[in-house]
Amino acid sequence: MIKKLLTVSISLVLAAGSSLAFAEAKVTAGKDKAASCAGCHGEDGNSMMPGFPKLAGQHQAYLVKQLQAFKSGARNSAMMAPLAMGLDEQAVNEISAYYAAQKISKNPAPTLPADDSDDDAPTKTDEQKKAELDDLIEQGSDLYRNGNIGREVSACVACHGPYAEGNKPAAYPALHSQHADYLIKTLTDFKNGARTSNRENMMYMIAKKMTDEDIKAVSYYISTLK
């Protein structure tokens, strides 16, 4: 009996070691194949440009799903489509595994962009700017956690989790520490139908009910989550 237990234990250890080695090999291969992505997304998936998303720490299943969508045309992007078309299934999985294994970077303290729409408006003091930003982030926090019942805007927390960590089994993306500018663009694209042509898409149905102020507020809030 003891001999059988030892045999089973050793087999499990060897299997676990083999799986770990396979996973590490996949990540290594993914790093090499992701070299062409570094210009926009950063070498380790932490984009330095706020218009391009951070991919570090994103769920592998979600990344695979998005690359497949770019390949099939289900998700439109003149930039990403030709790159994704050149990837086979193995490359898609390896690149996704590499980015999923990286750690997302924290964002610096947020600042509101300068408002150039009214040149005659009095210049705001630093205290006024901080108060405005604090109000915006508080508004975003409330919308993220509670939604807006009056306009039938669902709470983000339901799918993306209390800390915007996403839902790995459901392939709902992690959003924490993402660039606010990218989140604003993404939600705006969903709202305008530019992100998807499927009018039954859950994000389209939510975003179309959001105001521009809602989108800005929740994006800034999410960008502060770690």
UniProtKB/TrEMBL annotation:
Region (Disordered): 108-134
Gene3D superfamilies: Cytochrome c-like domain
Cytochrome c domain segment(s): 25-103, 135-226
InterPro entries, A to Z: Cyt_c-like_dom, Cyt_c-like_dom_sf, Cytochrome_c4-like, Cytochrome_c_Oxidase_Subunit
Keywords, ordered alphabetically: Electron transport, Heme, Iron, Metal-binding, Periplasm, Signal, Transport
Sequence intervals crossing the membrane: none
The keyword Transferase is annotated on this UniProt entry: no
Entry keyword Signal: yes
Localization in the cell: Periplasm
SUPFAM superfamilies: Cytochrome c
Residues in the signal sequence: 1-23
Source organism superkingdom: Bacteria
Compositional bias segments (type: Basic and acidic residues): 121-133
PROSITE patterns listed in its UniProt record: CYTC
Name of the featured protein: C-type cytochrome
